[in-house]
Amino acid sequence: MHVLFACPHNNPDDWLPGLQAELPDCRISVWDPSGPPSNADVALVWKPPAALIEHEPNLKALFNLGAGVDALLGMDLPPHIQIVRLEDAGMAVQMAEYALYALLRAARGFGRYEQEQAAGRWSPMPGLRREQWPVGVLGLGEMGGRVAQAIAAFDYPVLGWSRSPRSVEGVQTYAGADQLPEFLGRTRVLVNVLPLTPETTGMIDRRMLSQLMPGAHLINVGRGGHVNEADLLALLNEGRLEGATLDVFDVEPLPAGHPLWTHPRVHVTPHIAASTLRAEAIAQISAKIRQLARGEAISGVVTSQRGY
Ligand code: NDP
Ligand code: OXD
């Protein structure tokens, strides 16, 4: 098996020794767009240029160095190329940490206390009543399932929504478009961990956000394309939404001067909710390449029909 490293934004020297150690029988090379085709069988990629596919016609599988495959599906790949995503690989626990941090910052008022400290004011707020802070998690997959369980462990009421029915301990689950209004109406803090697909693009808009409980807060760790940013800003300014914690944006990096940078009730982070961990990613991808070499089926293969 010939494995190609085709991640122009990652330093191959950080990745190749670990890959070669896990795959001693494979030839491993770095994509060289100016050289002849390598004839590699599979490639490791993260947002690769479209030229890769034309230049490397022998590729049969792309191993994505992330969980979200929207960028690859947007490339209109030939149907014989399999897309394989990372499954957890150490990201789900980071996602749970991030969602808990954002929830606690909103529910316990830590953001507000930062402002009080800056003003030199000692002004305690009433204690937290968890039943007033039900959390709804959109997406109950590798990331969302872990997020929902972590929040439930802190005794917040937790609801979860997915495409097909799911069961998560301690979480009231809903599925499909029919059950979405009930899920939204019982949710105060909405955590988005959906994949970006044609069905989910732009779905977090005025209509959806208006169905949340009063004093609602949005935590978006899915993709920027899920959220209608103009609707979000309008609802924040109208006081219909109390706040938002945003890790992902329509355009990344978030452009200078964008109103989300400076909105007093928006907390911005630069797409760091869950980072790809090199050792875990190498171990998972190498195990799958060994399975492929033995002619075995692998998990984490994206179906273009579902879009994730
Ligand atoms: P999974 O494929 O494991 O889970 C996706 C979940 O979303 C499933 O529960 C699925 O339902 C549900 N879903 C998909 N489409 C719909 C729909 N139309 N209606 C209702 N539910 C739907 O993905 P992961 O949990 O691994 O990752 C989720 C996303 O998180 C990634 O695609 C990426 O965008 C984002 N991400 C962001 C990171 C960051 O740093 N900000 C890091 C990593 C990931 P079902 O269970 O029925 O299949
Ligand atoms: C991912 C991401 O999809 O980093 O893994 O956003």
Automatic annotation (TrEMBL):
CDD domains: GDH_like_2. InterPro entries: D-isomer_DH_NAD-bd, NAD(P)-bd_dom_sf. The keyword NAD applies. The keyword Glycoprotein does not apply. Keywords: NAD, Oxidoreductase, Pyruvate. GO terms for molecular function: NAD binding; oxidoreductase activity. Residues 102-273 form the D-isomer specific 2-hydroxyacid dehydrogenase NAD-binding domain. This is Glyoxylate/hydroxypyruvate reductase A.
